[in-house]
Amino acid sequence: MKAVARLMLAYFTGTRLLSIVTALGLVAIVGGSAVLFYLPPLVAQHGLPSRFSLAEEAALQMAPVAGVLCFIFGASLLPSMSMRLVTSHYAYVLPYGRVKLLASAFGTVALVSLVASTTVTLFFMDAGFPFLLMFRRGFLVSLTSNTILYCVLWFIGRSSSIGKLLGVAAAVATLVVPLRYQVPGTSITPVWIACALLWATLTAGVLLAPRMKLAYGGTRHSLAQRFGGASYRGGGREVDFMFGTANPWPLALGQIVPIAIATYYLRDYHPYAADAPNPLLAVMTILSVVSGGLTAVAATRARALWLRTHWTRAELFGRAERAFWGHNCFVLGVLLVALVAVGSWLELPTRMLVLWLGLLMLGTTLSTYLGLIVTASLGWTECVLAAATMVALLMTSIYTGAATTPPATIVALYAALAVAALAFRQLAARRWARLDWMLCRADSTVRPAT
Amino acid sequence: MSVPYAVAHQLGKAFYGKRVLENASFTVEPGDIVGVLGKNGAGKTTLLELMLGFTPPSAGGVELFGHASYRLPGAAKARLGFVPQQDELVNQLTAADQIGVIASFYPRWDDALVTRLAREWELDLGERIKGMSVGQRQKLSILLALGHRPDLLILDEPVASLDPVARRQFLEQIIDVAADGARAVVFSSHIVSDVERLANKIWIVKDHRLYWQGDFDALKDSIVRLHLRAPRGLPDTIAIPSALSVQRNGSSATVVVRDWSDGLHSETAGKLGVEIEVEQLTLEDIFLELHR
User: Fold this and answer.
1) Which chain A residue lies closest to B49 (C-alpha atoms)?
2) Do B99 and B52 lie in a common domain?
3) How would you write A264-310 as a 3-class SS string?
4) A182 pLDDT higher than 90
């Protein structure tokens, strides 16, 4: 029990940033909920005179939601740290190591979900829903969503740091799917099944890891022997091999799965107002930045090329830019084709589709140069720029998705994003010109932890 | 007679048909400090990992504290410490946080020992692990393995990243650990002088077998260099049982032999008609002769 509690504490407070985010989240949840609870009339639902302006009301209502998001992000060390320990020798030599690590992971997700579901229940308390029913649904939906979220964080965190940030955004989008089950009246059975399957898989993965590793190794070995033994079949140029951009197809085609899921769930979406945001475009926008985020590893990987070639740092930047564009063009191309296909199926207006295509191209461009800016470990500048870019892109997607937005506004927003992309490129080129590999050292032995 | 902490019988391991260790039988008893020597790829790490239960054996078995190592219960694991070749620390944490996390798994954790060692080894516990040098990370890994005062400490090349001062401090600490006679240490190293200084038992892994094992003194007595002198000339064939190498030089020769004994001395001298001078070898010489 002590180990489980200590692990959970470390997930929330392992770094100074996470401690601050967690604390801020708790303050926002408790403070915001208290305000909502004790200071009526917040009259959105009451129809009574309010002591607050509409803007103040909106801010007050958003406080607990922002707090929940902060609390969820506060435990973002959970996936990388627990998987680091589970895949290390500690899982073997620590007393009851695997069981305690698994318990700490479940405990953390359950705690986060408990906080989220309590907040959501309080939020809708005045709407007349039965308290327990709302809470139970909220907890189950949160548990499922947060489990998916942390899994996504881990998967993306394996490749790069900026990917982790993007992973948060992508994972938030996945919340759309389970959240529809929050509404009373819908069947909760699919969420139960999904949650049970998720945790059964995770439990089996953690507890049976050594056996699975052996079985996997044996299968891989026999397949390699059967098919000639070569493990790398990427081919292509050395630059692409070094940067990892030789084979864009897994990512390019992999996007189709979330697009299909989002389209399936959002096919019946009808905006309640003409200026309402379109969630499908938000999902597509998030996907457009994923491939760009991979460029965050370029600076680290460029060292090997610098040692092997006569290129200067400035020339290396050019090579990296070309290599990653060569990769990202395929990924973006598939995304654009998917958007056109989905748009045709959903019979979206042509004007809207054209605008959406433009936004996706801007998303990939911005994130590509944002990734190239990362020439040292992730600092405040990079975090702020990444967060601001995501907010700007999502805000633009809201305006673009709304039928009432004037075309001039959209063009102005796109122009601003294009200027930002050019500025990012300039900044990246300047940073690459004085690239210091002591500050962006590759460390393969500790990769899962970053 | 004390109960052995580790017992292996005919232990073997093969990966996908390729043998990496075979027929290893050994015991580790309280008070033992076992130095494991072997060339790269000889099977040292496999031997240690089999002992720890990281992987199931392909043949035979190994028991730790009376349990099959592959299915070691939690209570037995609490008596075990391990330092891997490459550390597996969590980069984002500070050293103190990492210690706190690992300490929470053990029912008994010696905070005083950890604090003292950290001070002596000049390890800043407030520093983030990501910013630590390789040597500092290795020191922290060793601290984490020592903190619960394990009965059996297994170290896989623990000093490879340490500077000479830290290495010496580490060796002293290992001697301290084993000083009460109730604990045992098994460590592999390429630094033969360290093994020589520290170990009271030696295991030599060669060609995927536990080629030699026993007390260090017995090893030194067993493998010796013989200087043969024959005023009337050496015979054409110098037939000495268990000779590892023979170098002729006119009327004299140098022979390194295994399993040497006083009985063999007089028998060989009489049979070959030579005078024999026996030279004790250092552990490094023995290791080199065995791998010649």
Assistant:
1) A89
2) yes
3) HHHCCCCCCCCCCCCHHHHHHHHHHHHHHHHHHHHHHHHHHHHHHCC
4) no
Asked, for residue B188, whether it belongs to a domain, the answer is yes
Range of the domain at B242: 223-290
Within 8 A of B82 by CB-CB distance, chain A residues are 89, 93
Q: Each residue of A274-300: pLDDT tens digit?
A: 555 677 788 888 888 887 778 888 888
Residue B248 and residue B208 share a domain: no
A181-203 burial: b if 16+ Cβ within 10 Å, else e? bbeeeeebeebeebbeebbeebe
pLDDT in tens, A25-54: 999 888 888 877 776 555 555 556 666 666
Q: Using the beta-carbon criterion (under 8 Å), do A95 and B89 form an inter-chain contact?
A: no
Tell me if B1 is assigned to some domain.
no
CB contact under 8 A, A10 and B89: no
**ipTM of the complex, rounded to two decimals:** 0.82
Number of domains in chain B: 2
Chain B stretch 90-109, residues whose beta carbon is closer than 8 A to a beta carbon of chain A: 90-93, 97, 100-106
3-state secondary structure of A186: strand
Q: Which of B18, B92, B161 to mutate to test the interface with A (most CBs of A within 10 A)?
A: B92
B54 touches chain A (CB under 8 A): yes
Nearest to A93 among B52, B75, B90 (CB): B52
A-proximal residues of B, 269-288, CB under 8 Å: none
> Is B179 inside a domain boundary?
yes
Contacts of B260 (CB under 8 A, 6+ apart): B221, B222, B223, B224, B226, B242, B278
Last residue of one domain, picked from the residues B173, B192, B218: B218
Give the residue on A whose Cα is nearest the Cα of B98.
A10
Domain stops at, among B218, B236, B252? B218
B109 and B52 together in one domain: yes
Binary contact (B52, A445; C-beta < 8 A): no
CATH number at residue B69: 3.40.50.300
CA-derived radius of gyration, chain B: 22
Whether residues B214 and B249 share a domain: the answer is: no
